[in-house]
Amino acid sequence: MKFARLAVGVCLGLAMAGCADPSDISTPPGPSAVAEQRGDAPSSAGFTSFGTQRVWGNGMAITVQPPTSLKPSDTSFPQSPRTAVFTLTVVNGTKTAYRTSQLSLRAFVDGAPVAEVRDSVQGLNGVGAGLTEVAPGAETVLTVAFAVPGEPVRLRLVVEPNGANQEPSATFEGVA
Hints:
Elements: H1 2-18, E1 36-38, E2 48-49, E3 53-55, E4 60-64, E5 68-70, E6 82-92, E7 98-99, E8 104-109, E9 112-114, E10 133-134, E11 139-148, E12 154-160, E13 170-175
Parallel strand pairs: 1-3, 2-13
Antiparallel strand pairs: 3-4, 4-6, 5-6, 6-11, 7-10, 8-9, 8-12, 12-13
């Protein structure tokens, strides 16, 4: 008798749940796009804001901090009115070691490419100088600079962790 009541109760509960309106079921919100963007596809706007962490499906994550502005030294190459300096944090959430030599960075102002700056006086030796093997679960910080005009400009930084023109990629954008 107890079994029959229990079976009827379970069936009734399932029947009631099946009749529920799915729009009434609340789903927890996903992670904030301001703090982090996940997935292999770019955001709907096509870019990620500086200061936002971009996380790919394989666990690799990169954050590009908003740039700081420097006056280039006399020995910087190429010479430019101003240098936009970016700090990148690479977090290896994959199961294998990651070599930063795979990392490709390209910057654009108004759709035109801008050159990476090397200025050893200010410690800006280029992304290639920071050759590091990042163990699974570890992170590293890289500093890279690009030549920009004297006035603030809107800059896009294309980050490709597996090399130029390789997926995945992310485009960070903001004022530099």
